[in-house]
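Example 4.3 (complexes with small molecules)
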Amino acid sequence: MTKFIIFTDLHMVPEGLTIIGLDPYRRLANGIAHVNRHHADAHRVIFAGDLTHGADRPSYERLKAILGELVPPAAMMIGNHDRREVFLQVFSGAATDENGFVQQAIDFADCRAVLLDTLFAPPYDYPVSHAGHLCQKRLAWLDRQLAEAGARPVLIFMHHPPHVTGFTSIDMIRLINGQEFYALVKRHGNVRHIFAGHVHRTISGSSRGIPFSIFKSPVHQQPMPFDTPDASLSVDEPAAYGIILVTDDGVLVHTEDYEIARRDAALA
Ligand SMILES: [Fe+2]
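Answer. The structure with fe (ii) ion bound is encoded below.
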């Protein structure tokens, strides 16, 4: 039974800065301490993009320093708030494909995890680059990873959801070539679940017959009204990470609101 922990949308900032009054460094440090305490046996902790808020080198360095505290092994992805080049300067050992995209396939006893790079940049041409994209090179790489997996269950992790989420403003900046992505995935027939971030909200459902899960951020969350006009508006709700378990007959997905959890109190 493979166990994954997933943190998405960390939005790390340089020292002294906050986001709507929240401290991304403190929020993530608490989350990592919580994982070390309760899930030190996780096979991977996946950081699913928007690692930083402003893609500046000091923020990546702060993130790297906190990750030094993490007990289970980490796997890094990037999102629309990241810059591939700056990320790779600081995380020089991060896995990339043969074209330099920050994506990798990892095999476990009972599944293959495929981590995609959906950053639609360079050029970092905001707001266009806030949407996600898988170019032909990345789709060809994905095609190979799914073919190699054969009959083994595949879990796909990607920052941008390839399907609609119900949030009008977010749906305008989802993966722009979702049709192409799903056509490829459906052709192979071995993808059991798709995991994404980007929305800063807990969402589950299915698209084209494939289940998906999206997780909250450890920091700021998406306002709940579906028609909030500005995708950058945020609210202060409890920090969260996801727990994914691959079972003999499927996949289990949990979320942990780690800053309000009272597990210790229950045990006392
Ligand atoms: Fe984000």
